[in-house]
Amino acid sequence: MFKTALLVVTKPLSQLRAIIPEYLSELNRVTSTTAYIHIQPEGSGKNAQSVNYDLVRVPFTTEVRNIVKAFYSSSSKTCSHLDIYVLVGHLTNGDVKLKKYNFKQPCDVVLIDKKVADDESSMFVQSLSKLFSVVDGAKLQYIETQEGYPDGKKARLDVSAQEFANKLVKQYSHTVVGGTYDRLHVGHKLLLTEACMLSTGKLTVGVTTGPMVMKKVLHEIMQPVNERISIVREFLTDVKPGLDYRLFSITDGFGPTVARSPDYDPKEDAGMGLIVLSQETIKGGEMINAEREKEGLPRLDVHTIELLEDTCHSKYEEEKVSSSSLRKRLLGTLLHPVQVKSHLAVHPYVIGLTGGIACGKSSVCQRLQGLGAKIVDCDKLGHKAYVKGTPGFERVVEAFGPSVVGEDGEIHRPTLGKIVFGDKAELERLNAIVWPEIARLVGEQIQQYKQEGTEVVVLDAAILLEASWDHMCHEVWTTIVPRDEVIQRLVDRNKLTTEAATQRLNAQISNTERVSRANVVLCTLWEYEYTQQQVERAWALLKQRLPIQGKSSSAKSNM
Fold first, then answer.
1. Domains plus CATH for the chain?
2. What is the C-alpha separation between 255 and 260, in angstroms, rounded?
């Protein structure tokens, strides 16, 4: 199997749409990672009979647009694991100089739907390498397809339909498009590709961040905005080199399309004529045009694309192709690679499980125990850290005085709590005493499990990261729940006021910080069954990467 393919499509446009699944099935069969699709109908210029291939302009018609869309929409069903790029730099109605396609991944195989003589194949591939990123020695393979008509009968369009198919699509010197573009998927690619095709000179792209993404499902595991911008830029320059791309991070729904934006440039805006939207962002486009009218700027024409159906979605995911569904599929998988910690024994394998208040950490712990893990409950060990007769007891009394000792001779927790919970410095002083003692007890418990031959130990610790106990763990797992849901749980379960629940939540580290330091993320927001699916997935993947006796291991992430 090849890693990266260039597919050269030469069938007449009138036949092409019906056989797109055949092309994609062949790509799926021979390619493992990436596929670039070049649409060049036979008869376009000198390419019809020549092995000296050249880039030839193809008019950007309604039919061409629909074929590009069909490649993307069909790919989500036929070869969803492949990273698909439909090349559109030569699809234009203007007399522009066509640029070489320089891909981020050079192609090691070329697929074409017309036969090239064996003695000419080397020359043909060599001519392609001047126009596309193709490795030296790339293989050439012929794809045999049907004629493209059902039952062998030529499709007939009435005159009006044929005229519509051949109608040239209006292009603009400067178009604009916006989105989140987290984990770039086929829906994003269609939106960006449409924006590319509709522009002849410049494309402005707004990539949302900050308050614009805070309400997104599992926003904590979104790619950083700079990474998303970089990925979008790479995609755009691959599919249509030669355009002037302007990419911005935006924190509202307007970005550089309105004069009040700090990124607004009147010179750039002078040529801006079109905004490309999805069905979900139509209202946002209306707001932009309303604001532009207030500011005395011309309205932008609007082009809207349909959402693509996700044929593989589960009952807990959206019916359309979406980043939210992709993020859900990452729950329970390895988000950040496991770093080998040479100071830790290979066995038992220790998982540090953490999470904020009311995030379902305890329930996840119970599920892991049901799958075979042994549990170390750090909250219970915390009560033992300063019982009478321990070093912790002596240090607490020395630090806070004999008044914290109750009538039974033990530390009186309510009295100690009044001292530390209203004073950050005093709390830190207590933590400096108690946390090391808990760590010592944890170590003893792990050693006991080791002697029993335990394979996996889960360290159940709400303050795992704050106390730096992650140094005792091979991996860190965290549970998260949206902020609003946590507050509601505290109000319902703990009978706190909203204000008190908010204060308690604000005193903890954020979900985002936990995620940044975790290898695996779980979310208990949804039904019991879905949480169980996440835990079982996490456990199954963990079992695959557990080290062999006497050997350490490392694993790559899905980020």
1. 2-152 (3.40.50), 170-326 (3.40.50.620), 332-384+435-545 (3.40.50.300)
2. 9
